[in-house]
Design brief:
3 copies of one chain form a homotrimer. Chain A is an alpha/beta fold. Chain A has 11 helices and 9 strands. A 9-stranded mixed beta sheet of chain A has the order 2-1-3-4-5-6-7-8-9, with helices on both faces. Chains in contact: A-B, A-C, B-C.
Amino acid sequence: MINTFANDLAEIRRRNPLVHNITNYVVMNFTANALLAIGASPIMAHSVEEVEEIVGLSSALVINIGTLSPPWVTAMALAAAAAEKKRIPIVLDPVGAGATRYRTETAGKLALEHRISVIRGNASEILALAGGTSATKGVDSVNTVEDARTAAMEMAGRLSCVVAVTGAVDFVTDGKRSVAIANGSPMMRRITGTGCAASAITGAFCAVQPDPLAAAAGALVAFGIAGEIAAEGNPGVGTYAAMLLNRLGDLEPEMVTKRARIIESGFRKL
Amino acid sequence: MINTFANDLAEIRRRNPLVHNITNYVVMNFTANALLAIGASPIMAHSVEEVEEIVGLSSALVINIGTLSPPWVTAMALAAAAAEKKRIPIVLDPVGAGATRYRTETAGKLALEHRISVIRGNASEILALAGGTSATKGVDSVNTVEDARTAAMEMAGRLSCVVAVTGAVDFVTDGKRSVAIANGSPMMRRITGTGCAASAITGAFCAVQPDPLAAAAGALVAFGIAGEIAAEGNPGVGTYAAMLLNRLGDLEPEMVTKRARIIESGFRKL
Amino acid sequence: MINTFANDLAEIRRRNPLVHNITNYVVMNFTANALLAIGASPIMAHSVEEVEEIVGLSSALVINIGTLSPPWVTAMALAAAAAEKKRIPIVLDPVGAGATRYRTETAGKLALEHRISVIRGNASEILALAGGTSATKGVDSVNTVEDARTAAMEMAGRLSCVVAVTGAVDFVTDGKRSVAIANGSPMMRRITGTGCAASAITGAFCAVQPDPLAAAAGALVAFGIAGEIAAEGNPGVGTYAAMLLNRLGDLEPEMVTKRARIIESGFRKL
């Protein structure tokens, strides 16, 4: 699978796929710059008046619920329906699922009613979403990485999508196949928007790679490698944000192959 | 009081308090990164569907009126009511009060109808707000720092809150006690969002320090010191923004004690 | 004309004109920092409750349709009407015109119904807008720089405004006089918001320079020079964004005169 990562990065650089983002206010600028750096073309558009047309131009749709309000939720559903119809991949980032009912329900509804390619969140978001989309609402265990992985596998199988749980080690699963990725740096959690950027970059990889498991894994490996190289020299947090964009911008495909740290892989039963 | 500043900074780093921001579009990213750098956990949420729940998770609420519209004003009032009920501190940043009736009235209404812990603004904003919240609407003097300080003391006493007037020298008062702070750098006015970040960081200090005068003063001292260290070496404005985050991120509590420049302190009569 | 550029830059630094921006979420922070760096005072405000009052305080209005929704479109029209009435310059940035009907129509309506001083866009946006504002809707040729220039001259003459088509070489025309500008760097297209910042800086130049052709050309020359100096040393994309702000901040008027690269100028017939 590692070779697909490098090929996909090169392909993004070649095709510059248009990635439509309906995302939160906090990270729009950083997300757009991250997508440009990796080689994609970002477009942000959120109004019902135009999201379907924007989807019509795009190669992937990324929905991020970080700063929700009702008009945006309506547009997210419209855009998702258009993306399904056009058969372009949808990435869902359930920011803050579990923190409020509004977020949990919005993310759950999007996940249940649309054909999502990849759901990417941290452990607590995935646990909350898995609970919210499960008929039994049975996930009430302590919030641990292991629980989130189990929930991710269950939800991935149930919804026929890929679920990525990011953290110190990222875990990506389609319910049958699972990959754990040890790239990245603790610095990535010290600035805002790295999770959201990871989701957007997953959208870029999905635009060129039909297997969403390979796409999500490739995105997290590439982003993680950029993040760990950016942390060399121990920059301050403000400098780190710029360095991360620098390293996304000059990341070589061969470097992805060389530095990928996939620490487990294969098929796991539920 | 200086010792509380260092302790409070250390306490923020220990507790990582969740600070709920309803703030303007321009500064959301910078504010989130400033809060992360100082050690707090930022969350941005603005819709009536969820602000009360977000307040329920948070240790402080920061309301900033920099890019207002009616749904946001409604959410601000709901969030403020929830924060009062939960007895968590509220910081109000009346951005642009005095520039338009909408801003002056919105800030005035929030200040009058809710138990605000700290109001932070520049001289003209505080003068406008003091005029707008005073029954006599009597502040029609020339807009000077001295007038703003007098207005701040009057308003602080009347509303039982702390008022911080920031500028070349910051002035913080609860109507009886007053502190002037000479930390900071002129560079801070050359980039957008430093005032808004100061308000957000005040929220972080309020989350760990029950005396809002000490909290506001500590926040302005800490932020000012980060700002003056960041200006060393005379960086350009773009670099300065990153340096300011770097220095917030590595600011040591002892440094706060050592570099605090409180040039007047004590009790002043109105 | 080159001497007006340096004088205008010095004048912006002297007067710090207030520039009202109704712009998109992605670039608000970068735009505000770019305006501060060049010496202007940015204000962002978008609600119908206050845009007319903000226009009343401002020396220029910049309308950017990058992340549209109906309440913003209403506010844009109100603000534009107020700016016309007050006789302050309006700059229109038709971001994404041609990509969706909503954008093309919104930009077209603003261009037709208001006295715009400068419309700034890339080749495809100008072609789309020229098609959308033309009775014959006749621009259906291939999307080339030369077509965009022809369309810009036609539209400028028809709407009595200045049209700037930015790209590897910028082209500015009022329908009779035309200027081409070869300043800038390919790096400017690798980060988000440089086009939007160019429009905002055009607003700052319009605030001090009554000839909109000279204002637009001066803005693009100044911004382009900052962009090319910032690219020296081949920074990464994240660093480049900071360097661009640095170089806008320390750009000397004499440097503008010295480095301006106007490669054609004069009167051209349609």
